[in-house]
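Please produce the structure of this protein holding glutamic acid.
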Amino acid sequence: MAVSGEAARYRGRFAPTPSGPLHFGSLIAALASCLEARVQQGLWFVRMEDADFPRNRPGAEAAILRALEAHGFVWDAEILRQSKRLDAYHAALASLKEAGRLYPCACSRKKIAAHHPPRAIDGGLVYPGFCRAGLPPGSAGHVWRMRIEEPSEIRFTDAIQGEMIQNLGKEVGDFILWRDEGLFTYQLTVVVDDAWQGITHIARGADLIDSTARQIYLPTALACPTPFYAHLPVATNQTGEKLSKQTRAAPLENSRAAANLTAALTFLGQNPPLTLARASIQTLWEWALENWDIGQVPHSRFLRAINNT
Ligand code: GLU
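Below is the modeled complex.
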């Protein structure tokens, strides 16, 4: 994708996984990322993160796009589908291998757990590094891991959550970029595509904030620019669970688009007049574009959604 001559222009994106229809939680990320791009006179893209093939659900992509259209979203280029980008991920993996930044690993989850390593920040286990110095004789690697070199403290300033620090070596460990069932992991695909699309600013749910240090470390190794980040509060239901397919979040009703968008603006701290819920989509977007202020978004990682739970 051409970015030459536009290097300074804001480029944002919404990157849904087609694992189910849009729900209120995903509307938050779509709306905030789009409004911020628009008020910055920038471009806004939609990318279908469909390279994690087992998670794709038939019909989900079409339902997501129908919902975005019904809610008045307009994107700036053809949709990028990760399933069409496998060559780019292969090339990134090959360049990291060649630079000696990756190593194959043969360890099973059971073997790692038996060593009782510390818990990783995302709930997994910090890999103890058994295969760092080479595969045990006679064994075959089934994943490729990124070798984290010290010092591995990553700092960034999040536009909503503030100053963030993560020690990758201690809190994450050598992370996986490729699994032998032919799957590139989210950490790799997101970085390769954000770089290729020239994304300068990422606004997304704070459930992904713990991945961000990996996504800053990786571009450094791939010599890609690092985007700016804004992690939005994640919408939860009454019992504090993230709204998701797993927690049976209701799909957005397209016939209630104005009400859904008004609820999303309220959730994002924008105080829309409640009459907007009955206004036309056009009036609603006009109000949103006029009034959007990322500074009003609550600085919390999780927030209960009043509606739609
Ligand atoms: N595809 C991811 C999801 O649906 C979002 C990735 C991102 O925004 O970085 O949760």
